[in-house]
């Protein structure tokens, strides 16, 4: 009798194990079919190292510079940036497949960033090009090689050649103008070809005109259209600190950014942050007014994708296709700037915050 009970027990145990394995297999298959990929952007607010580079305008960010940029401050900054990226990973259950960044001095700061213990397990790879920016900052990409297969990348210079816009600058001013390059990254996600652009369009500081930002958007759009002609069906996302809102000329007219996803045509882009701005979301605040300069736009191939292929998905309240990521600890808790993004410096003093911008992201899946 005891022997029969033992046999029955072992049979039942084997059945339970077999059923558990079958359920795990089904779950894995379902997960694979619904695999989410996070595509994001983050302005890292002056991520400079502590070393003097004669080719960079980094005098403020040296130990003896006006910001007294010591190794301790630099280490704190790296930890803060990595903590935000890790928090996004924890919220999403996965690291970004593609993360565009801006306001970084060089490749070294990115190497230091991805080696931080908070995110070292992401095994991020770097795509970076030195640019001629007057401030000494660049844009770049981090990508997860487990979900993105690299093909190629390119630095696209900011020039005025071939513009259809009417400049409000002299020939001499245009000849001497220097800003960040735009970076293009191309590869495959889930076997589908995708391209990503990251930009940090010219600042508004000093009253710089909308012409410059519109010209930057014109450059990106022309390059993207050429890429779509060369690779029919390619899926494209454009991201960056645009220094403009979604309704400004650069984004609405020159980038052909549509607010309504249903209105997007084959030569237009969908801007999920347009409606979010209208409904009170923001990534930075100036004199009490919130803006979303940190945008991600996707082409029609990401919007009206065939069933079973990569497509942009709703991620906030089942209503919005974009997310402005912020946590209480990323926000100023008191003082004049209470409620603003908790930044690194305020009034010239180091306050040990994160960035003056909140990061943004979208999610794509099949």
Q: What's the short story on this structure?
A:
This protein has helices spanning 2-33, 71-92, 107-114, 171-176, 210-230, 249-254, 273-278, 300-303; strands at 36-47, 96-104, 125-128, 138-143, 149-156, 182-189, 192-200, 235-241, 257-258, 269-270, 284-286, 289-291, 294-299, 311-313, 323-324, 345-346, 349-350, 360-365.
Walk me through what this model shows.
With 366 residues, this protein is an alpha+beta fold. The protein folds into two domains: 33 residues; 330 residues, Deoxyribonuclease I, Chain A (4-Layer Sandwich), CATH 3.60.10.10. 29% of the residues lie in helices and 26% in strands. The protein is built from eight helices and 18 strands. Strands 1, 2, 3, 4, 14, 15 and 18 form a seven-stranded mixed β-sheet that branches. Strands 5-6-7-8-13-10-9 form a seven-stranded mixed β-sheet. A hairpin with a 2-residue loop joins strand 16 and strand 17. Helix 2 packs across helix 3. It is globular, with a radius of gyration of 23 Å. About 5% of the residues have low confidence.
Number of distinct beta strands = 18
Cα-atom radius of gyration: 23 Å
What is the CA–CA distance across the termini?
54 Å
Helical proportion?
A: 25-40%
Query: What is the count of structural domains?
Result: 2
Structural class: alpha+beta
CATH topology term of the largest domain = Deoxyribonuclease I, Chain A
In oligomeric terms, what are we looking at?
Answer: single chain
Task: Note the beta-strand portion.
Answer: 25-35%
The pLDDT mean sits at 92
């Amino acid at each position: 009798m005891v022997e029969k009970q033992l046999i029955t027990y072992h049979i039942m145990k084997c059945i339970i194990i077999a059923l558990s394995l079958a359920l795990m297999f089904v779950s894995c298959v379902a997960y694979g079919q619904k695999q989410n990929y996070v595509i994001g952007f983050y302005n890292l607010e002056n991520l400079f190292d502590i070393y003097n580079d004669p080719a960079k305008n980094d005098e403020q960010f040296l130990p003896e510079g006006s910001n007294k940029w010591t190794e301790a401050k630099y280490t704190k900054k790296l930890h803060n940036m990595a903590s935000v990226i890790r928090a996004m990973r924890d919220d999403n259950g996965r690291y970004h497949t593609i993360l565009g960044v801006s306001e970084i001095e060089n490749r070294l700061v990115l190497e230091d960033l991805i080696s931080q213990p908070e995110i070292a397990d992401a095994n991020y790879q770097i795509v970076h090009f030195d640019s001629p920016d007057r401030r000494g900052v660049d844009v770049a990409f981090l990508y997860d090689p487990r979900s993105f297969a690299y093909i190629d990348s390119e630095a696209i210079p900011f020039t005025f050649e071939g513009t259809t816009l009417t400049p409000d600058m002299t020939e001499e001013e245009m000849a001497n103008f220097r800003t960040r390059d735009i970076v293009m990254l191309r590869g495959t996600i889930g076997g589908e070809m995708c391209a990503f652009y990251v930009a940090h369009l010219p600042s508004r500081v000093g009253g710089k005109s909308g012409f410059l930002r519109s010209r930057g958007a014109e450059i990106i759009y022309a390059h993207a259209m050429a890429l779509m002609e060369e690779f029919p069906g390619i899926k494209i996302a454009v991201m960056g600190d645009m220094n403009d809102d979604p309704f400004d000329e650069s984004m609405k007219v020159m980038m052909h950014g549509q607010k309504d996803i249903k209105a997007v045509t084959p030569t237009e882009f969908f801007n999920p942050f347009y409606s979010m701005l209208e409904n009170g979301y923001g990534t930075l605040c100036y004199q009490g007014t919130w803006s979303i300069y940190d945008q991600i736009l996707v082409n029609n191939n990401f919007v009206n994708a065939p069933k079973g292929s990569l497509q942009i998905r709703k991620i906030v309240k089942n209503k919005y296709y974009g997310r402005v990521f912020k946590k209480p600890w990323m926000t100023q808790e008191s003082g004049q700037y209470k409620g603003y993004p908790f930044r690194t410096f305020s009034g010239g003093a180091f306050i040990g915050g994160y960035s003056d911008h909140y990061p943004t992201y979208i999610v794509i899946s099949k």
